[in-house]
Automatic annotation (TrEMBL):
The gene is rhaQ. It is found in: Cell membrane. This is Autoinducer 2 import system permease protein LsrD. The chain crosses the membrane at residues 31-51, 63-84, 91-108, 114-137, 144-167, 187-207, 236-255, 267-285, 292-310, 316-336. Keywords: Cell inner membrane, Cell membrane, Membrane, Transmembrane, Transmembrane helix, Transport. PANTHER family: ABC TRANSPORTER PERMEASE PROTEIN YPHD-RELATED-RELATED (PTHR32196), AUTOINDUCER 2 IMPORT SYSTEM PERMEASE PROTEIN LSRD (PTHR32196:SF71). InterPro entries: ABC_transp_permease. It comes from Luteimicrobium album. It holds the Pfam family BPD_transp_2. It is a multi-pass membrane protein.
Length: 361
């Protein structure tokens, strides 16, 4: 036996399946009419405009330095996306970059081999991330408060390790690898390991039970716990991943500029968070996709590079990117409200078109 209602014309009863509104549309609409697709399209439009109107933008050297400058943000944005999807945040990532750089410089200064120095620097990032994850996941402290504190803690340790000095005598064969390009394409070799990491994180977030648990936690931690998701363990793993990838970014940052300092990447966390939010991730959690985040990072990079080539100052570029971010954040609730309003009107029209039952006298 099945029944229908005016509000829900879908049959309800034995053998009936629930239909989700998001999957009621054709696949092309679900793929193309999204925030992520809009950001990707905007990257293409801005790049085409810059290629046609900005001098030197189409040269391979411009592409090379655009990608080299964006690599640190691209790397950290991968795990940061998963953290923000759970409704948490990590403001200590730039300090972990600085601490990793300082650790690497200190070890090299005392005669440690480069390979071992890199491994130890990565382990330092893992420890930093585990400390954040333990306080947030198992102690239950707010991630904003925890990572503001560890931001200062890790940065203070980093500056304390090297003081005001900088280690710059790294081997040329190591520093040159950070800036090498693939043939004459202008694409840096460092894009290869980034692409591998990006594929790993895309698979982890979008195609595994762990990734579904990440979204569940962002929507409702209590509901996720009742459904069998360990919110504590998931958050610990995510903060460990964030610390490890931030340390990897610190190693790249050190080799890219040939300098290890405790204040390296100061303020970078704001750029990472801006790119993640611009890519369509909700600051309230439960929503976001990695392709959109990668496009958000590239959008900031392309826009900044084009404006610099036109002689626009850094302050003006920051204002433009800030306005773009504000519009991006505001658009989410506005579009959601418009979508709900349209859905309510459709349901009202459907209800009015259903004939009323005739009751026999």
């Amino acid at each position: 036996m099945t029944t229908t209602t005016a509000q829900n014309p879908t049959p309800v009863g034995s053998g009936a399946r629930t239909q989700y509104r998001a999957y009621a549309h054709p696949w092309w609409r679900r793929l193309l009419l999204t925030r992520e697709a809009a950001v990707i399209a905007l990257v293409v439009i801005v790049a085409m405009w810059a290629y046609s109107n900005v001098p030197y933008f189409g040269e391979t050297d411009t592409l090379k330095y655009l990608l080299l400058d964006s690599t640190t943000i691209l790397l950290i944005a991968l795990p940061m996306t998963l953290v923000i999807v759970t409704g948490e945040i990590d403001l200590s990532v730039a300090s972990v970059v600085g601490l990793s750089s300082a650790t690497m410089g200190l070890l090299h200064e005392h005669g440690t081999g480069m390979a071992l120095a890199c491994v130890i620097s990565l382990l330092v990032g893992v420890v930093c991330g585990a400390f954040n994850g333990f306080l947030v996941g198992y102690v239950g402290l707010p991630s904003l408060a925890v990572t503001i504190g560890t931001l200062a803690l890790y940065r203070g340790i980093a500056v304390g390790l090297l003081g005001t000095t900088a280690v710059t005598d790294f081997p040329k064969d190591w520093t040159s690898k950070a800036s090498e390009v693939i043939g004459s394409s202008g694409i840096p070799v460092v894009m290869v390991p980034f692409a591998v990491l990006a594929i790993v994180f895309v698979l982890l977030l979008h195609f595994t039970p762990f990734g579904r648990g990440v979204y569940d936690i962002g929507l409702s931690t209590e509901a996720a716990t009742f459904s069998g998701v360990s919110a504590k363990r998931t958050k610990l793993v995510l903060f460990v991943l964030t610390g490890a990838v931030s340390a990897l970014a610190g190693i790249y940052f050190t080799l890219r500029y040939g300098s290890a300092r405790g204040d390296n990447a100061n303020g970078l966390e704001l750029q990472v968070i801006a790119a993640v939010l611009l890519g369509g991730v909700s600051i309230f959690g439960g929503r976001g996709r990695l392709p959109g985040v990668i496009a958000g990072v590239l959008l900031i990079g392309v826009l900044s590079s084009a404006l610099r080539l036109q002689g626009v100052t850094v302050n003006v570029i920051s204002i433009i990117i800030g306005l773009l971010l504000v519009v991006s954040v505001i658009s989410t609730p506005v579009l959601a409200r418009v979508s709900d309003l349209v859905a309510r009107r459709r349901r009202a029209r459907r209800a009015s078109s259903v004939p009323q039952s005739v009751v026999p006298q």
